[in-house]
Amino acid sequence: MEKALIDEFVELVSIDAESGDEARIGQVVADKLRAIGLDVTVDAAGNVVGRAGAGTAKGEPFILCAHLDRVKPGKGIRPVIKDGIIRSSGDTILAADDIAGVVAILAGLRSVAATCSGLPPVETVFTVSEEVRLGGARQLDYSSLKSKSAYIFDASRPVGVVVTSSPTHVGFEAQVTGRAAHAAVNPQDGVSAIQAAARGVVRLPFGWVDDHTTANVGVVTGGTATNVVCDRVTLRGEVRSLNAARAVKLAQDFAQVISVEAATVGAEAEVTCDVHYHGYVIPSDAPVVQKVAKAIEAIGRSAVIESTMGGSDGNVFNANGITSVVLGTGCESVHSTRESMPVSELVAAAKLVEALLTLN
Ligand SMILES: [Zn+2]
Fold this sequence. Notes:
Elements: H1 2-13, H2 23-36, E1 39-42, E2 48-52, E3 62-67, E4 80-82, E5 85-87, H3 96-113, E6 122-127, H4 135-138, E7 149-155, E8 161-166, E9 168-177, H5 193-203, E10 207-210, E11 213-222, E12 232-241, H6 244-264, E13 268-277, E14 280-281, H7 287-298, E15 304-307, H8 313-319, E16 323-328, E17 340-342, H9 343-358
Parallel strand pairs: 3-6, 3-7, 7-16, 8-15
Antiparallel strand pairs: 1-2, 2-6, 4-5, 5-17, 8-14, 8-16, 9-12, 9-13, 10-11, 11-12
Helix pairs in contact: 1-3, 2-3, 3-9, 5-6, 7-9
Bound molecules: zinc ion.
The site of zinc ion (ZN) has 5 residues, from helix 3.
């Protein structure tokens, strides 16, 4: 199994598939699913949805999910395997996020399909543009999915970790408008949008606001030259909280602070808030958690329940009524050129898929 896993991992990371450019990898994965025996459709967004065991096998259907896209720099990946660890050549990411999930699901399906009992009722969802605001998952046709639960192989944590909660993420954007003037000839006629925006920014909390809440202003743009009183600044930030109401309320409070502070120097601020994704908290006695905990035991590990402050397709699935947890695939240092994938974790992830497909 190990060699086949490594070969398929190398094959798939070698296909260029940065977000928005998943057509080719989608085609390859669709063909692989068909070869295993699944019925496969590719939707308009490019999401690859597979089905097996419908009508023949017994049991509640469930979803196995991973995403096809990767962040930049993710083109021309040339993986190097040394001492049981797969890495990139150093100039790109490795794309173990989330090819490790894709490969584990394919390998687990393949191995169970080859047994005499065959595959249980299962749906596979391989999404596009997960890394760009969960774009593919947002465009899925949820009415076409039969499953009420999902296992998303997409956490950069050891195999055995089950992520059962994730925050609500609210983004905000402020357009701060002042008045332009020559900075030295008639500065008294100007209103600096930079000064106005800065007054708001220093009043906002950064980082951990409480145990379950973070805040950040991550983008500031504006200004053209040192001799111009800047008349326009854009601020972009976010609030995340496991408490959805708190996330929304804080973002609204921030909008208020930015507006009030801008007004004190005669500028105006227009602030918009937007829920990027909704959070979820799945109780650890939920059947979806119990089942994967059993599967993790079957591969000789113990389930470790964790919370994350990140988002994944699971946020969109849960918001659409599919109870979903996110599972560790064993990849490390994702979204960086130091990203790595221990071969032993790839094997464990594939075995976990197998266990999920064979548990009763
Ligand atoms: Zn990912």
